[in-house]
Structure formats: C-alpha cells, structure tokens
Specification:
It is built from seven helices and eight strands, in the order ααβαβββββββαααα. By secondary structure, the protein is of the alpha/beta class.
Length: 249
C-alpha cells in the first residue's frame, strides 16, 4: 500500500506507531496493533462515494481472514447533492457494524453550525468522533473544535458520541527522507477530526486487547460512559472527552 497524500500514514501512526524515530515520544495510542489498510482517497485527499462503498465492501470480504475488529474512517463527507447516495453509504457502514466490527468515524470539519456532521457519522451504529483539545490551544483561532462537525440539536440520534484531541497532533510523515544515514522529517503535525478519530480507535484497540470477547456494542457503550463531561452542548461534545485511563479500568 502506498500513500501519496500523507493523510493515511498520519492516521495509522496515531493508532499504532512505534515512535522508534522519536525514541518513543511520538508513539501511537496502541503500539503494535496490526493494520489492514484500504486506500479510498487520491493524492489531494479527495475521494468519492463509490470509492468508499468499494472500500467498505472489501472490509466485509476480508474481515474474517484478517480478524478485523475496528474500522477507522478518518474521512469527512459533506452534505450530498444526492440523498439516496448517503442512505446507501450509511446502509453499507451499518452492515460493517452488524458484522461485528466497531466503526469509528470522523465528525467532519464542516462545523460549527448545527447539523454539520459528516454524512458517514449520523448512524446510531457508528462511534462518531468530534474534536476538542481541552485547555490546549484554547486561544488559537484555528483549533479543531472551532470547525468540528456537530449533530442536530433535538435529534433522536444524539451525535457526536464523544470527542478527542485533534489540533497539532504529531504522527508519522509519509514524506520523510534519509540523509547521511539519519531520517529527517519523520513526524509532522496535522489538525482535524480525522486526527481525533484514530485516537479513539487506538483506545478501542487497547480495550479489545484487554477484553478480547467484548462486542462492538459493548465497546461503544464503554467509550461513551467513561468519557469526561466537559459541560458543553451535546451536539458539540456528545458524552464528553475520551478518558483512556477510565476506559481500561
């Protein structure tokens, strides 16, 4: 698998990077977790509904062969001009969930307006991750929480499910190089709900590692119930900020 945009490499590193080139400083949340990677975006980070559907179908085909437990979707999809495509996409994502895979997807970066979630994040059978950095970057205009996608106030499906940091996340750089036997630019910082999502996926991987018989529904409930309430509107924070320590207790 190749990465000509750098997005996927950064996401993968956040989940399970070893941090070896930083002497452990920039390790992923769940180092050593095995990855099965599907590429659905081009070199500009753009994609299509059709490519996403093909990727989801492929996951269903190989899930037993590779023992897939978690699907991380760090892709935001805005409002579609053809609503029927959105329904087809959500249906396929729910098929993945019903197969026993925990689906963790980004809330998208179209916020902060009401009802600005990514089209893949509205289902009750996904874990939708918004962005919040706590006290970090509180005075930074470009902080991720300022544009994190939000659910609809008063909706029967209350989204996002929880939030995680997504501003200035340092992870693996696809465009590193080597000079005189030393690696340069091995890590890079990126922002967005795409960066918050793998933090939750990594935490879920740790939980499945501790409780291998846990179902995806049980994992979702535990992610929600152990989150820290930030005292913000539900359509911004969901159940609150991911708390990895409490999650694993």
């Amino acid at each position: 698998m190749y990465d000509n945009s750098g997005h996927g490499t950064h996401v993968c590193g956040s989940i399970c990077g070893s941090g070896v080139l930083s002497e452990g400083k920039y390790r992923g949340v769940a180092p050593g977790t095995r990855l099965v990677v599907g590429k659905v975006l081009d070199e500009r980070g753009d994609g299509s509904t059709e490519a996403m559907l093909e990727g989801l179908e492929w996951i269903l085909e190989v899930r037993e062969k590779y023992h897939i437990r978690i699907l991380n979707i760090s892709v935001g999809i805005g409002t579609m001009e053809q609503p029927e495509k959105e329904l087809v996409l959500q249906d396929k994502i729910e098929q993945v969930w019903d197969s026993g895979i925990l689906v963790v997807c980004a809330a998208g970066n179209k916020g902060p307006g009401d009802g600005t979630l990514s089209a893949v994040g509205g289902s009750c059978r996904v874990v939708t991750v918004g962005c919040h950095d706590g006290s970090y970057a509180r005075d930074k205009p470009g902080r991720c929480e300022a544009y994190s996608g939000r659910g609809k106030l008063g909706s029967a499906v209350r989204k996002p499910d929880l939030v995680a940091p997504g501003t200035d996340i340092v992870s693996c750089n696809a465009f590193f190089y080597k000079i005189n036997g030393k690696y340069r630019n091995a890590y890079t910082a990126k922002c967005g709900t795409s960066m918050a999502t793998p933090i939750v996926s990594g935490a879920a991987a740790l939980l499945f590692g501790k409780y291998p018989e846990m179902t995806n529904d049980e994992c979702k409930e535990r992610l929600q119930y152990t989150a820290d309430d930030l005292g913000l509107p539900w359509n911004m924070q969901g159940w609150g900020m991911l708390n990895v320590g409490r999650l694993l207790e």
